[in-house]
Amino acid sequence: xxxxxxxxxxxxxxxxxxxxxxxxxxxxxxxxxxxxxxxxxxxxxxxxxxxxxxxxxxxxxxxxxxxxxxxxxxxxxxxxxxxxxxxxxxxxxxxxxxxxxxxxxxxxxxxxxxxxxxxxxxxxxxxxxxxxxxxxxxxxxxxxxxxxxxxxxxxxxxxxxxxxxxxxxxxxxxxxxxxxxxxxxxxxxxxxxxxxxxxxxxxxxxxxxxxxxxxxxxxxxxxxxxxxxxxxxxxxxxxxxxxxxxxxxxxxxxxxxxxxxxxxxxxxxxxxxxxxxxxxxxxxxxxxxxxxxxxxxxxxxxxxxxxxxxxxxxxxxxxxxxxxxxxxxxxxxxxxx
Length: 337
Prior knowledge:
The protein has 10 helices and no strands. It is mainly alpha-helical.
């Protein structure tokens, strides 16, 4: 450090932070495993363990706002004093926000560390072969960054979303079982429909990635330099049209899945309001419970949507990682031979 410049954080504090939340090492792996989650644990195992611990501290807090909202509304309806509930709510917001901030910052650090480590590994396979240079550069710039970002959240993100979902659903089930079960029923079609359509998207994505990489290789290959316009058009146009057709099919299926999930997402709150309203009229539940359940259903929709998105992302990253790992292993074998 230059003279006269004082670090805003002391060295002991930095060492303590690095010990509690260590960064991802810079040194790349000697060999890339074929499985995506095998790579996740080998490249960032200690970091994943700490992210899991932070996640376990965050998701149980998801049910706290629902209970506080229920008590506030019931106090308003019965013209009772709020007591300390609003103050507790404010304290909860501060504590929960702080935990989420630390977790989010560490997720970002892990992601960038994995991206750097994987880039180092891919760059070491560059051997000056112009016919492969375009595909490898594309891999370093785009595919590697997506994979690294996924690795950071590969364990902690689905754990958080599943934890929030079951914490909120468990709270609703305890407070008003009938409404909770009916509302949960609208998640079942999404859970059945998403994997089926996602498998179709996965196959199309794999074909599209392979076609794009073949296009990149051909554009930098010596055999295609100097060809006249007619020959270039005859060679490249079908490949470009194929990439376009695959992407259009992917977009159509993605939006079909999105529309179906959104429709089911609107039916859930409607069931809470109708059934819950009937229970209020019968004197079998409180207004505050229904208000909390409407909010709770939104809290269920968020994690459920994120889990489905995670499944789609995992399916895509598994394909991309396999392509990257296969390319690296092929280059290693070529260079060794």
